């Protein structure tokens, strides 16, 4: 077969296998299609299919095909991260800043501390910390991976639960928005390269200046032109961030943060988000799965994944309950908010990919983080749905935001 034919065969696997599992097994209640695609990416990777059919795996996912898939995946994830940045509504967050900062701070800070404690434990054993990581980078990176809230996946899950446009849904979006900003800020700190600090400072100054020019330009353009200019801005920011020694996805997120939803229209952005998930992100999930490894033994990876899951979920729930006591929430509200905020999904996987690229974590730690992201996301709907039904019966969800 030619490289093109093998590439198309790989693409066929990427789209057919998850869809059949999702439809035939009817997993939508606990595992939306995106989660099934992530799981199938792991299954199609070297740890499962690669171990059972090594020759076939090497034939289909040969270096030329993997390079092509990675190119498609990088473009898809850049668009996805940019859209996540655009979705941030910092104006509403500022309006309710006391409640938002208190909740976001506790729901981010406690799982961060728990994740850092887990990282300190892992540092006592070889094979978990990356070759280029300082102790503080590994600790903070692992801790922040446990603290991540995946805003785009959270939107999908709240749509499924039919609370996205309700007051509680809007409150949760504000908390998650602040967490998202903190996550990318901490990532920039972790990736700070003192040998390239001049470049990184130049990038930040240049970005701030060009943002003013970009926003004035976008305000004057027709909507049809804004889409094209937005893509140029995305590519330029991603390139500049990568050149500065950060990561192209940091640039993609910053590119989206300085854009306004009103420039494009919420319906158009929602449609693009769904199309990116449909057309491009399955390739990213597969390329992510190809990076999973179990060299330290399956049991060890699963144990570490469980440890990180406990740190992540436990930290979020304790943080939400503390916020509820401080802010006087109604009974049951903190549990719903805590479980929704612990959703990891795609942002955590993107975050872990960056840590792996920079050799802050190893492939084994990456695999454990991937398992934690899948587990936390799959737990959300089955646990929140009955809690939400009880809360709606008490009129909790219909209450206006404080």
Automatic annotation (TrEMBL):
Residues 13-381 form the Cation/H+ exchanger transmembrane domain. It comes from the Bacteria. Keywords: Ion transport, Membrane, Transmembrane, Transmembrane helix, Transport. Its main location: membrane. It is found in: Membrane. One of its GO terms (molecular function) is antiporter activity. It holds the Pfam family Na_H_Exchanger. The chain crosses the membrane at residues 6-22, 29-52, 72-90, 102-124, 136-157, 178-194, 200-218, 230-259, 271-287, 299-324, 336-356, 368-385. PANTHER family: CATION/H + ANTIPORTER (PTHR32468), K(+)_H(+) ANTIPORTER 1 (PTHR32468:SF0). This is Cation:proton antiporter. It comes from Duganella lactea.
């Amino acid at each position: 077969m030619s490289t093109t034919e093998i590439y198309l065969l790989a693409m066929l696997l990427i789209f057919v296998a998850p869809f059949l599992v999702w439809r035939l097994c009817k997993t939508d209640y606990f595992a939306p299609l995106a989660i099934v695609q992530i799981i199938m990416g792991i299954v199609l990777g070297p740890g499962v299919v690669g171990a059972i059919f090594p020759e076939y795996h090497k034939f289909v996912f040969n270096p030329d095909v993997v390079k092509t898939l990675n190119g498609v995946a990088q473009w898809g994830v850049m668009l996805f991260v940019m859209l996540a940045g655009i979705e941030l509504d910092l104006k509403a967050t500022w309006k309710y800043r006391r409640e938002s900062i208190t909740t976001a701070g506790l729901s981010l800070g406690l799982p961060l501390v728990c994740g850092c404690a887990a990282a300190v434990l892992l540092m006592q054993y070889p094979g978990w910390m990356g070759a280029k990581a300082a102790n503080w980078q590994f600790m903070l990176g692992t801790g922040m991976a446990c603290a991540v809230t995946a805003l785009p996946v959270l939107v999908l899950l709240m749509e499924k639960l039919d609370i996205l446009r309700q007051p509680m849904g809007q409150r949760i979006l504000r908390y998650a928005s602040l967490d998202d900003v903190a996550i990318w800020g901490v990532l920039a700190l972790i990736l700070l390269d003192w040998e390239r600090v001049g470049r990184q400072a130049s990038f930040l100054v240049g970005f701030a200046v060009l943002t003013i020019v970009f926003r004035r330009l976008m305000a004057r353009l027709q909507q049809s032109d804004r889409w094209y200019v937005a893509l140029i801005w995305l590519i330029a920011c991603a390139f500049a961030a990568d050149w500065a020694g950060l990561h192209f996805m940091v640039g993609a997120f910053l590119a989206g943060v300085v854009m306004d939803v009103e420039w494009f229209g919420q319906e158009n952005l929602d449609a693009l988000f769904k199309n990116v998930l449909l057309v491009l992100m399955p390739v990213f999930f597969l390329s992510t799965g190809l990076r999973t490894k179990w060299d330290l033994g399956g049991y060890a990876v699963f144990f570490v994944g469980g440890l990180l899951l406990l740190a992540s979920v436990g930290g979020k729930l304790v943080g939400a309950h503390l916020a509820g006591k401080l802010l006087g929430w109604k009974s049951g509200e903190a549990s719903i908010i805590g479980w929704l905020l612990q959703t990891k999904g795609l942002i955590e996987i993107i975050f872990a990919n960056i840590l792996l690229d920079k050799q802050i974590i190893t492939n084994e730690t990456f695999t454990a983080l991937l398992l934690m992201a899948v587990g936390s996301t799959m737990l959300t709907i089955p646990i929140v749905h009955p809690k939400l039904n009880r809360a709606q019966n008490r009129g909790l969800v219909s209450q206006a935001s404080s």
